[in-house]
Amino acid sequence: MAMFRQIAGLAGILAAVSSSNAATSFPCDHLAGVEGRGRLSIVFFPEAFDDSTRLDYDSTVARGVARFFEVSPYREYRDYFALYKAWIPSKKTYVGNTPSDSTVFQSYFPSEVPAMAGMEPWVRTQTDSTFRCRDRPSDFLKEAISVIFVNRFGSMGGSGITNGSRLTVLMGKTGIDNVLPHELGHALGGLVDEYGQRGWSPGAGHFDSLGRPRFGPVPNVVASLDLQKIPWKAWIEPTTPIPTPDQPEFDTVIGAFEGGDLRNTGRWRPARRCMMRGESFGFPPFCKVCRERLVYDILRQGAQLSRLYGETRFTRLRLDTVSPVPDTDIESGRVVVRFPRVDTSPLHPRWRYNGIELPNRSDTLDVSTLSGSGVLEAVLVGESPFIRNPDLIPRDTLRWTVRMSSATRNGIGRHDGIRRMGPSLFMAPPCAALPRWARSANGKRVPLQVVATTANGTLLSGASMVGEALFLEAGGSETKATGGIR
Ligand SMILES: [Zn+2]
User: Which CATH architecture fits 1-315?
Assistant: First the structure.
């Protein structure tokens, strides 16, 4: 499994984490979001905090969480997240220059790297089942993003990295207001830094000497000005000069500005200013390109893992509720497909039955309104006002097989064959119960009269509108039939 590393140290540290730590299970307090509903989990961890500094850790986490939800697009999609705070005390409250087992993650600053070149943390993977949140499933941490707050490093920024299937952010508590949203841009969106060379690090960057991505697609920096190869070309207006001059008049323009991914030349970024351009530039909001990528990854479950490892098994759209379980048989009841709430445009499923789109626009579908047996589909499209690139609109289709019970078949479900024969004249195929009246689009109730019964069915008159709902009389009570007049 290839390791994908985001080098993002704003000052950085070198950390090594051994798997020999004695910590087993530990408390993980639920801080925000809805549990167990397909949310994107973020778990905060303490490094070099002991019981006497626990309140300091608690307030650091609280401030980080508050700030996280102030930054767009985390703000608009806050209901997609579930946040947790782990507590594991260390035996000392500082990180030294040599490995030590006195802190939870055994991180250290090697003295030979004075200002830090990068980091190589080894966080326990999900294969170490002894490292787990107490009272939660053993795989709870598997897809969670870990944020490790390191005590007492005033100059330290942070680093968003991935290792194995863990997505990890390691950061000092100083500068938390902007470092946390920035580092989560690395860990969550796979975004790279949009700043150029730093004194502390020449940095290998994410491209090889020929300008090819070394670890997989890079969403927000390119090593070529070929417009067709710019991942964010959907955002570039034809009138925008490429490369784009680094001048204030282009502050709000998406183009190709030189400098990014730790290089001052030969790399281009989408915007003049962006959260991913970093601290020296005041941590402005995420540019539209970075925001688009983050929304895509927020909407799509497992997007990070599939990008890192080419896996496609975690590619569903995140849902708040899906019931019953897709790919099962259903006979009756309701099918519910609900997205988490968003502050932008709400998302709803589009329903399809045997390939035909249904007029239903709600999150719930009553199976008894369907005609006969067949395949029910909920078509999910992860649209967002923040997404312009058509390749970044996540799509998914959920399916159920509907098998009508015999009672259902006898009562309703056979009126989708009603055909228009002339003005206010319709032919209903032979069936157990005849439609008695129809409701027109404006809610008006129109009685249906039997004109004649033939071998082909029953001739009815009365209704007039295509698509009118039919109501049956069966067993003395009226029931809405499936289908309508065509
Ligand atoms: Zn950006």
Answer: 3-Layer(aba) Sandwich (3.40)
